[in-house]
Amino acid sequence: METFIKLLLSGLFVFLIFLSIDGVFELNYHTNFLLLGLSADELESLRTKTVRPMLYLTGIYFIYRYFTGKNPTSTVWPVYVMFASFSFVQFIAFFTSPFSIALIISFLLSLFVTVILRIAHNKRQKDVSTF
Asked: Which residues contact 84 (CB under 8 A, 6 or more apart)?
């Protein structure tokens, strides 16, 4: 399980670097990444309904943590919160977006990554609390 978590986090690291660099230099490159069959307008609508609220929820959560005086308990925690927020807004998108099989696959994939990140956080938190 430890190797699987490291591989997943490494792959996620490279994937997020690629998307962030791509988003800065070429906004139209990923017109249908993981969501084959959607028009550019439908994809932009789905992004607006999922990615932006996910970023807002993540920011709200960490501002709340700041005001309550709590710090993240592991270095994996912020990434876990981001994916948990993304899974949550994708669940809501089932009721507000056109239904597609790709939406279900994307939701299940993000939910799977969220669970693995929670396991990684619990393991890292256990390592940190032993000091």
From this structure: 114, 118
Q: At what angle do helices 2-25 and 101-128 cross, to 10 degrees?
A: 120
Q: Which residues make Cβ contacts (< 8 Å) with residue 81, sequence separation at least 6?
A: 58, 61, 62
Encoded tokens for 45: 């609508």
> H helices of 1-131, where?
2-25, 40-68, 77-96, 101-128
From the CB of residue 36, how many other CB atoms can be counted at a distance below 10 Å? 9
Cβ contact 23:52 at 8 Å: no
| Average pLDDT for 114-128 | 83
- pLDDT value at position 115? 93
Closest alpha carbon to 88 in 72, 63, 109, 111: 111
- Which pTM does this prediction carry? 0.68
C-alpha closest to that of 30 among 8, 48, 47, 10: 47
Contact status, residue 80 vs residue 114, Cβ threshold 8 Å? yes
Rg (alpha carbons) of the chain, rounded to whole number: 16
